[in-house]
Write a structure and sequence with these properties.
about 150 residues; Glutaredoxin; five-stranded mixed beta sheet; about 35% helix; globular
Length: about 150
Amino acid sequence: MIDGVRTSAADPTRDEGTWATFDARAIHEALDRAQPVFVSFTADWCITCKMNERVVLADSQVREALDELGFATFRGDWTHRDEAIRAELARHGRAGVPLYLVYDPSDPDHPRVLPELLTIDGLLDSLRLASRASSAPAVTLAQSDPGAGS
């Protein structure tokens, strides 16, 4: 756990303790610490959500990647129609769940919106991209001296 945010992802259908509850402020705090973020919006009645949770999010490769790459993980449960979650869904062009967002700390205002039907490889690629971008060292190009080497 980093500053109160759980950062590993087990099967959310069996272990609720591994996901922090959706909280926009906590997400921005994680991003401010240069930590990548994965958010899953789901509902108990959503069949696609449950299938994604069991097949993709519970996969050991996915759980290990979330942990090893240092992701903060959040779950927005829309089972009982929460207004903050409705607004977040609408902000990303969705009227319902599932919605999966991968935040890159280097571009916190533009999370990658994943497809409703997840694949292990697709999710792993998105996680690696966000993690790589957040941990890449800044590159500075040195100005060359036009008189050097002549």
